[in-house]
Amino acid sequence: MKKIAIIGLGLIGGSIAKALKKSNEAGNYFIAAYDLPQIISQALAEGVADKKLETVEDAATYDIIFLALPLSESIDCFDKLAGILHGGTILSDVCGVKGIFEHKWNHLESSGIYMGGHPMTGKERGGYENSDPLLFENSVYILSSRSKGRPESHELLGIIKCLGARAVFLDPFVHDKVVANVSHIPQLLAVALVNSAFENNSENINNLDFAAGGFRDMTRIASSSFSIWKDVISTNKSEILYTLEKLQYQIGLLKSSILLDDQKKLEESFLKSAQRRDSIPKTNKGFINPVYDLFVYVKDEPGVISKISTLLFSNGINIKDIELLKIREGSGGTFRLSFESLKDADSASGILKNAGYEFQ
Amino acid sequence: MKKIAIIGLGLIGGSIAKALKKSNEAGNYFIAAYDLPQIISQALAEGVADKKLETVEDAATYDIIFLALPLSESIDCFDKLAGILHGGTILSDVCGVKGIFEHKWNHLESSGIYMGGHPMTGKERGGYENSDPLLFENSVYILSSRSKGRPESHELLGIIKCLGARAVFLDPFVHDKVVANVSHIPQLLAVALVNSAFENNSENINNLDFAAGGFRDMTRIASSSFSIWKDVISTNKSEILYTLEKLQYQIGLLKSSILLDDQKKLEESFLKSAQRRDSIPKTNKGFINPVYDLFVYVKDEPGVISKISTLLFSNGINIKDIELLKIREGSGGTFRLSFESLKDADSASGILKNAGYEFQ
Question: Which residues contact residue B263 at a Cβ distance below 8 angstroms, ignoring those fewer than 6 apart?
Answer without folding.
Answer: A230, A234, B257
